[in-house]
UniProtKB/TrEMBL annotation:
Keyword Transmembrane in record: yes
Protein species of origin: Pseudonocardia spirodelae
Pfam families: MFS_1
Protein name according to UniProt: MFS transporter
Keywords: Cell membrane, Membrane, Transmembrane, Transmembrane helix, Transport
PANTHER family: BLR6921 PROTEIN, MAJOR FACILITATOR SUPERFAMILY MULTIDRUG TRANSPORTER MFSC
InterPro entries listed in its UniProt record: MFS, MFS_dom, MFS_trans_sf, Tet-R_TetA/multi-R_MdtG-like
Primary localisation category: membrane
Membrane topology qualifier: Multi-pass membrane protein
Length: 467
């Protein structure tokens, strides 16, 4: 193909395999609904933490695991998901992920104890982590040379789930029970499996290298041991011995993981991408940014209920402001990236996110709590929409030859930050005499950490135009 042909408004048909396939719209609908189901589940469960803990006899520190353990499963499965799709086929892994997610949703709904529910949620996270890379591969295969536009539209499903999830969760919790939040996934999952069997084609397979199983195991062991330590610190009645042992295990596993990553060239977290050339600053930014965005989404309904005694539906609806704000400013950030570069958008967005956290953390001086919290949530969402795409671009332009690896690390670090934030906040709420005030202080600490990260991020050289 000549350069002139590439520059025309309507490019000529590409080679075999690059032409969009006839059933691409129907396949996109199936895959998009699966992603929406996953996104709804993540955000709707947050509205029911206090109810789940009360019904299953668990304090909030352990009920918070219902959210965080799914994120751990996702972190474990994301690097495995791409490898499994290349080895066994994207269609097979997509359908297996949806089916496992559906089965675990049904089992979560009938869990008799918090331990069983946590186990089911872990497998749900694994299923989601396997499903996501396979879903991207299926969409890319169906749309051929138009895959970039299709995948961009595909990622917009998550904000839609962020809007609908808290509303659905609050509504189901108000009119039914927390069991219904999980049961809603079952009929939808069955329909998606049947439709996927009929419509989805298998993308071409590729040869795969070895997966860093030892590195993934050490990473997950570190995360789980750290979560247990934080949870036990929030439950003083559990006694100090097991807390100390869990902390020692976390430190030992973390040290072993770092040593393993330094020795293995294809480690799940490549050492060369951890520091240098601004990567250390961006990785730190992603951890704190994930702690704020994921932690805020997972705990705002809980905070509104324990501090201001809002209903589950009203508390969940507060997250609508964050989601709408993100949707409004994200396309603006994408349009301005090449003209302004990533740094002004990143720093401006971080300022807005810090402002939203501060508003949320302090008691309303004039407005009703619902209006005040909605304002904080919306401001945080507006900032997230600005700095999210900018942070993504900043990390990738630093090492343009390792875009895929940097993208995977970005997701992993943000999920790890979210796990830490939810674990610490729920533990603080459990241990405090004034749970609402403790949660407000935690939001204030997050705001301070994010402001410090912004000072560091200002040191990264800006870059305009293409990269």
């Amino acid at each position: 193909m000549t350069d002139a042909a590439r520059d025309t408004d309507r490019p000529p048909a590409g080679p075999v395999g690059e032409d969009p396939l006839p059933r691409r719209v129907a396949v996109f609908a199936v895959v998009g609904l699966a992603l929406l189901m996953f996104s709804l589940d993540q955000t709707s469960v947050a509205t029911a933490l206090t109810t789940i803990g009360g019904d299953l006899g668990a304090d909030l520190a352990w009920a918070g695991w219902v959210v965080t353990i799914a994120a751990v499963g996702q972190i474990l499965a994301l690097p495995l998901g791409g490898w499994l799709s290349d080895r066994f086929g994207g269609r097979r892994m997509f359908l297996a992920g949806v089916a496992a997610f559906t089965v675990m949703s049904g089992l979560s709904a009938v869990s008799p104890s918090i331990g069983v529910l946590i186990a089911c949620r872990f497998v749900q996270g694994l299923a989601g982590g396997v499903m996501l890379p396979a879903a991207n591969g299926v969409v890319a295969h169906q749309f051929g040379r138009d895959r970039d536009r299709a995948l961009a539209l595909f990622t917009s499903v998550f904000p839609i789930g962020a809007i609908l999830g808290p509303l659905v969760g609050g509504l189901v919790l108000t009119t039914w029970s927390w069991h219904g939040i999980f049961l809603l996934n079952v009929p939808l999952g069955i329909v998606l499996v049947v439709a996927g069997l009929a419509l989805v084609d298998d993308p071409p397979h590729r040869r795969t290298g070895r997966v860093d199983g030892a590195g993934i195991a050490l990473l997950v062991l570190t995360l789980l041991a750290t979560m247990v330590t934080v949870t036990r610190l929030g439950s003083p009645a559990d006694g100090p011995v097991w807390t100390v042992l869990a902390g020692a295990l976390a430190l030992g596993a973390g040290a072993a993981f770092v040593r393993h990553a330094r020795r293995r060239p294809d480690a799940v977290v490549p050492v060369r991408l951890l520091a240098g050339r601004g990567l250390g600053i961006m990785n730190t930014t992603n951890v704190v940014f994930g702690a704020v965005v994921i932690g805020f989404s997972a705990t705002l309904p809980l905070y509104a209920q324990v501090r201001y005694d809002l209903s589950a539906f009203a508390a969940g609806a507060l997250l609508t402001g964050r989601a709408v704000g993100t949707i409004v400013t994200s396309p603006v950030a994408v349009a301005l990236l090449r003209r302004l570069g990533f740094r002004p958008l990143l720093l401006g967005g971080l300022v807005a996110v810090v402002g939203g956290l501060v508003i949320t953390a302090v008691a309303p001086p004039v407005a009703e709590p619902t209006v005040w919290l909605l304002a904080g949530s919306t401001l945080l969402g507006l900032g997230t929409g600005l700095c999210g795409p900018a942070a993504n671009n900043a990390g990738m332009h630093l090492v343009p030859d390792d875009v895929a690896a940097v993208s995977g690390l970005r997701i992993m670090f943000r999920q790890m930050g979210g796990i830490a934030a939810v674990s610490v906040l729920t533990a603080a709420v459990t241990a405090a005499d004034d749970p609402g005030l403790a949660a407000g202080v935690a939001y204030g600490v997050l705001a301070a950490l994010l402001a410090a990260v912004g000072v560091l991020a200002a040191r990264i050289p800006n870059r305009r135009g293409r990269w």
